[in-house]
Write a structure and sequence with these properties.
Helices cover 58% and strands 7% of the residues. The protein contains 43 helices and 14 strands.
């Protein structure tokens, strides 16, 4: 008798009567977890023991090993338990009779599926049937099987250890479940990988449970992720599967979680994404959530969208750089040979173990190749040896089919044979696959395929697209052989969602490599015509952004970038403008760079398309805040085309218009004004004073004047432009709204806060209605209104608005976009004014650091935000450091912009306070007096900055015991504040209380 065994008929030792070991196939983990939870609640001590004996270990030995466990063994019977290996019924019958029958007191069993089991399973003394019944009856049968609870007299526990709810009954799906592929009933092995993933997720730090399944193409990352979902589904209340190969698709699917979570949001993705992110982070209504990001091969565009919170995130990717994005990386290896053999025999039951081993060797244990090849062999009379001979001789290999050097046998050759088989059965399936190969690999929206005009379809596909039966037959055949994955639409609400074809990258490459030049031209042209036919066109309409996002990835693979057709050029420019307006700047710049390479090769360096593209690329780059590069791009256009066409060419003028924005971004405001005026005058001469291009150039002049601190001149110009645009276009056009925003900004900078607020409130409502709440221009208008509210004295509302706005601009535009940094700077000083010093300091320091990194330490924005930080240092008691910083900022801003610029004067106001606090009252009075004189000359005697400087001067004069002069200056300030802002305005109230005023730097949009 082996150690640990008991004799037939004997009872387990008393010390072991509370212990039960559950033996189960990995496929049935959900059942094992639920059974363990039920037994633990009734006082049993339970251990889980996955059943996965190596093929070389005899069944009898493996079963005897179970007897080494203390207590009883509960076996979860299913066809998976018996087929692991796979083993024959004869082997099982012999092993069960030899081991289980003599130790029937140690073994009990439950059955969890309806498939027949070996006859010798009767050795368990009958299995309790848990399949196809409810949870309550299943628990009753389970407890009846194991006998009375060892915890006599104790009430069953209603919670598991740790306070978390236990796993649900396996027939009860999670409360929220979407997008998960069907379970692969041929899934084989991967037990260590699945357990490792579970361990990594369970033991991760709170908020950091993100695991990336990484491996080569075709290794089965998606299948492992799907199997993990099914095995551990009972431990989650929400499971959401998301194709993550494209940022637009990922944003869309995450946003679609909002209604599933019961969140009340508007229709815009940005708002929904924020609500979903917050709900997941808080763990309400579900803390046990699992998000799967499938096919995330490019971390850069999507890493910022990964949810955080108490739940888990599982990523599949070919890109191991996910480890640089705070994820736990786990490599999915090739199949072991045992796994390959077991899988092949499950996929093609006619093959022997020897044949399966030969095939696994030939295909290098690559799961995708094994799946497709074994699936073909299952329906074929060809022997495995003949098939391998064909592979080795390349008899069916088309020219160009090759594999990577580190892959020992040709997956491409194997796939070519599969395509030949498909041609014999459903040839239209191959034609459809060839068409898909000229889209990008990954997700292909069916509506793009069905949008191809019938006249442009390849002849074999003309009837297929409009015949549901033939279409479904082709799709089903491709799915049958694991060539594609097809997701049906989950709802009928979206007319653009007709389902999605998922084409693996290896399949994509193989199909394209096997096509001749003539076919390539026919199929790629059809895809290009389809993309052109579905051009959303109105790139400024936020409702059409998802459609643009679905088109952009397919431009390059379709050959659109090398097309000479004007419709394709128009589509590319529309997609680039969409990328600019939607804030998808990285995507836009990459598309512009690839298009530039192709167009220069096709059309030459001096073709108008090339230079129009270069100017648009500069616009995209400028929006990222890289003004040095955008200036270089604009100057290249100007220099080249000026030499070819003259300085009055319209493309040259557009580039010079952009150059003005570059120069403003680089703080070369005088140069920007000069360039803007030259462009305006040239447009006026060429197309007239009231042409839209002239008006836009005029607005650039006004913007340059504003940056120079010449606010009244900017207001005069912006008002004229606003009137003209309203007359030429309409009041609700985006151009008119842009002028309204600029005019309100001018009024605010001039201290006419109530007027600015009145205009901006109405303008913002129109912005939202016309352009949508997440349009960058709407976000800019919201920022302007928040600062209007701040300046009229409604500080609390301004704080709330700025906080919400900062979250949105970060999500829509990114953390370092110019508008994001500007909003962050405003949010920081408003938080400081509210006394929220920790939050204010964190945001303010980060913003100042980012400005310095992106623009350099001598840029006014870097200087200004450092000056704001000095005020924060003083507020937290670090007075000496604060005064040192403000002194440096005053010197730097004076050096960069001169002593009379409003930003310099504002810093001087704060610097005079520092002198006063340091005991240099005479120096403070001197600086305050100088600030009053200079600000009066630049801004006028009633400007709030002038009046604030007078309040400061009065304080300094009083410190010098010049009380009469101090009272006189103070009265002037109080009278001015009351007249311009009102007696109850916070600035007037503070002045009457003799609270020294502070100035805060506000960045402006270029």
């Amino acid at each position: 008798m082996a150690p640990g065994e008991s004799s037939a008929g004997s009872r387990p030792p008393d010390t072991a009567r509370r212990r039960i070991t559950i033996s189960f196939a990995g496929f049935n983990r959900a059942w094992a977890s639920w059974i363990a939870d039920r037994l633990e609640r009734h006082g049993w001590q339970v251990a889980l023991q996955p059943w996965n004996p190596p093929v070389e270990v005899p069944l009898e030995v493996a079963l005897r090993d179970l007897l080494l466990a203390e207590g009883r063994i509960l076996v979860v019977l299913s066809d998976w338990y018996f087929k692991l290996g796979p083993r024959t019924d004869e082997e099982w019958n012999a092993a069960l009779r030899a081991v289980v029958a003599p130790h029937s007191d140690r073994f009990v069993a439950v059955s969890v599926n309806a498939h027949p089991v070996p006859t010798a399973a009767s050795a368990f003394g009958g299995a309790a049937e848990l399949w196809d019944i409810g949870a309550r009856e299943a628990e009753r049968r389970l407890l009846g099987l194991v006998g009375p609870s060892p915890a006599e007299g104790e009430a069953p526990s209603s919670r598991t250890l740790g306070g978390r709810s236990g796993p649900r009954f396996p027939h009860e799906p999670p409360h929220v479940w979407s997008g998960v592929p069907r379970r692969n009933t041929r899934f084989t092995g991967r037990e260590q990988t699945l357990q490792r993933v579970s361990d990594l997720l369970r033991t991760a730090e709170p908020g950091a449970a993100v695991v990336t399944l990484w491996g080569m193409s075709g290794v089965g990352k998606t299948q492992v992720a799907a199997e993990y979902v099914y095995r551990f589904a009972t431990e989650y209340d929400l499971v959401w599967w998301v194709p993550a190969d494209q940022r637009g698709t990922l944003r869309q699917r995450l946003a679609e979680l909002a209604p599933a979570l019961g969140l009340s949001t508007g229709p815009e993705y940005g708002e929904r994404l924020r609500a979903v992110g917050n709900a997941l982070r808080r763990g309400t209504p579900y803390a046990r959530w699992l998000i799967v990001l499938d096919g995330a091969d490019d971390p850069g565009p999507i890493a910022d969208l990964i949810p955080s919170g108490p739940g888990h995130v599982l990523i599949t990717s070919q890109n191991r750089t996910w480890e640089d994005h705070n994820t736990l990386l786990h490599e999915v290896p090739l199949y072991s040979r045992d796994e390959s053999v077991a899988f092949i025999r499950r996929r093609a039951t006619r093959l022997s173990a020897e044949d399966a081993d030969l095939l696994a060797e030939a295909l290098g244990d690559l799961p995708l190749a094994l799946d497709q090849t074994a699936g073909w062999l299952a329906d074929s009379v060809m022997s495995v040896r003949d098939y391998i001979d064909l592979l080795q001789r390349g008899s069916y290999v088309e020219v160009g089919l090759r594999v990577a050097a580190d892959f020992p046998m040709s997956y491409f050759t194997a796939f070519a044979l599969l395509l030949n088989r498909l041609r014999e059965t459903v040839p239209e399936a191959v034609d459809l696959l060839r068409l898909c190969a000229y889209f990008a690999p990954g997700a292909i929206p069916v509506h793009l395929l069905q949008g191809i005009p019938a006249d442009d379809l390849p002849e074999p596909l003309v009837g297929l697209m409009n015949d549901p039966l033939r279409w479904n037959a082709a799709i089903n055949k491709l799915v049958q052989y694991s060539v594609i994955r097809f997701d049906v639409p989950e709802t009928e609400a979206d007319p653009d969602d007709s389902g999605t074809i998922h084409l693996h990258r290896m399949v994509h490459q193989t199909v394209r490599a096997g096509m001749g030049k003539d076919d390539e031209e026919v199929y790629s042209r059809a895809v290009r015509r389809g993309l052109s036919a579905t051009d959303p066109q109105l790139f400024s309409d936020t409702r059409r952004w998802p459609r643009f996002a679905r088109i952009v990835p397919h431009l390059d693979p379709s050959g659109a970038l090398r097309s000479r057709h004007p419709d394709m050029h128009r589509l590319i420019f529309n997609c680039l403008r969409y990328a600019y307006i939607a804030g998808e700047l990285t995507v836009g710049i990459q598309l512009a760079e690839r298009t530039d390479q192709e167009w220069r090769d096709i059309f030459g360096d001096d073709h108008p398309l090339v230079w129009d593209l270069a100017s648009l690329k500069a616009t995209l780059v400028r929006a990222t805040g890289d003004y040095v590069l955008s200036e270089r791009l604009d100057r290249a256009v100007i220099d080249r085309l000026s030499a070819l066409r003259g300085s009055q060419d319209l493309t040259v003028l557009r580039a010079e218009e952009g150059l003005g924005g570059d120069l403003r971004g680089l703080a070369r405001y005088d140069e920007a004004l000069e360039v803007s005026r030259r462009v305006r005058d040239a447009y006026a001469e060429l197309v007239g004073e009231r042409d839209l291009r002239t008006l836009t150039a005029n607005q650039q002049v006004a913007t340059s004047l504003r940056f120079l601190g010449r606010y009244q001149e900017a207001l005069d110009a912006d008002r004229r432009i606003l009137q003209a645009r309203r007359e030429l276009l309409r009041p609700r056009s985006n151009w008119s709204l842009s002028s309204e925003n600029a005019t309100a900004l001018d009024l605010r900078l001039l201290g006419r806060y109530a007027e600015a607020q009145s205009l901006q409130e109405q303008s913002l409502e129109t912005h939202r209605a016309v352009m949508g709440p997440d349009h960058p221009q709407t976000l800019s208008a919201e920022w302007n209104l928040a600062l209007c509210l701040l300046r009229v004295g409604d500080r609390a509302t301004a704080l709330v608005r700025l906080g919400g706005l900062l979250d949105r601009v970060e999500r829509v535009l990114g953390e370092v976009a110019p508008l994001t940094l500007a909003v962050a700077a405003s949010y920081a000083f408003v938080q400081r004014a509210h006394g929220n010093l920790d939050q204010a300091r964190a945001v303010g320091e980060l913003t100042a650091k980012r400005y310095e990194q992106r623009l350099g330490p001598r840029h006014p924005y870097a200087i200004g935000t450092r000056a704001n930080h000095a005020q924060m240092l003083r507020a937290v008691g670090e007075r000496q450091q604060a005064h040192l910083v403000i002194k440096e900022c005053l010197a730097d801003m004076t050096s960069v912009l001169g002593p009379d610029h409003p930003w310099t004067l504002g810093i001087a106001l704060n610097a005079s306070a520092a002198r006063n606090l340091d005991g240099d009252v005479e120096g403070a009075a001197e600086l305050s007096g100088d600030t009053v004189r200079r600000a009066t000359a630049v801004l006028g005697p009633q400007h709030p900055l002038v009046l604030a400087a007078k309040v400061a001067l009065a304080t300094d004069l009083r410190g010098l015991r010049q009380r009469e002069r101090a009272d006189e200056v103070e009265e002037e300030a109080l009278s001015g504040l009351t007249a311009t802002l009102g007696a109850q305005h916070p600035a007037a109230v503070s002045a009457r209380s003799r609270v020294r005023p502070e100035w805060d730097f506000e960045p402006m949009a270029t």
